[in-house]
Structure formats: structure tokens, C-alpha cells
Amino acid sequence: MASRGKGFLHHIGFWAFIVGLILAVVAGLLWPSNSTIIVVLIILGIIIGLLNITAKEFMLFLIAVIALVVVGDVFTHLTVLSLGVRLSDILTYIAILMSPAAIIAAIKALWAVGRPGD
User: Where are the domains of the chain?
Assistant: First the structure.
């Protein structure tokens, strides 16, 4: 993500990403399906989408988000120590964090394509 030497706002976006990932992992382990955590992750995702995703990172970012959504429930059949359910909860929270950022990045890309000029 774009946080190298690009100003204060990019640092905020970077830290929103780090905090969101940590929160998604911890909440996936301890508090699955918590609506307060979901709202916080959505807000952090919006911040990430607005401040962190650059044009160079757009394609890789969207592919990563699509991969997260596709494999989200693949671990649920792993029943040892409820490990599959916990991994699925973590991936769901990470997908919730990244979805608003992906929507914002897609809108930015559509805006860039539809803008006259260049």
C-alpha cells in the first residue's frame, strides 16, 4: 500500500490498514459476528480506500480482494479444534475490511476511465 513518503494522510491510511487487519484477526478468534466490529471494519475500509489505494496498486488490490471473497468459507470443513470456523471468521472480517476499499478503488478507476482528456 502507498505509505512511503507521501504525506500524513497516507500514514493514516497505512495505520488504518494495520489496525483493521489486527482487529479482523483478533475479532475472528474472539468475537465472531459482532456488529460493532463490523461497523468499525467498514469505516477503516473506507479510510483505506480513500487514502491508500493508488493507480499502480489497483489491479493487484482488486485481485486480492476477489481471492479473499472466493476462498472465504473453504476452511469451514476443517473441524479439528473448530479451526475451520475460526479461519472462516477471520477471512470474513478481512473481506468486510477490504470490501469498502475495493468499492472505492473501483469507483476511482471508473472515474479515471470515464474522465475526458488524456
Answer: 8-114
pLDDT digits (tens, 9 = 90+) for 33-59: 889 999 999 999 999 988 887 777 888
Give, for all 118 residues of the chain, the pLDDT tens digit.
544 546 777 788 889 999 999 999 999 999 888 899 999 999 999 999 888 877 778 888 888 888 888 887 777 777 777 788 888 889 889 999 999 998 988 888 888 787 776 5
Rounded CA gap, 77 and 25, in Å?
A: 19
Q: Is 81 left (phi over 0), alpha (psi -120 to 50) or beta?
A: left
CB of 53 within 8 A of CB of 108?
Answer: yes
What b/e sequence results for 4-29 when a residue is b if at least 16 CB atoms lie within 10 Å of its CB, and e otherwise? eeeeeebebbbbbbeebbebbbebbe
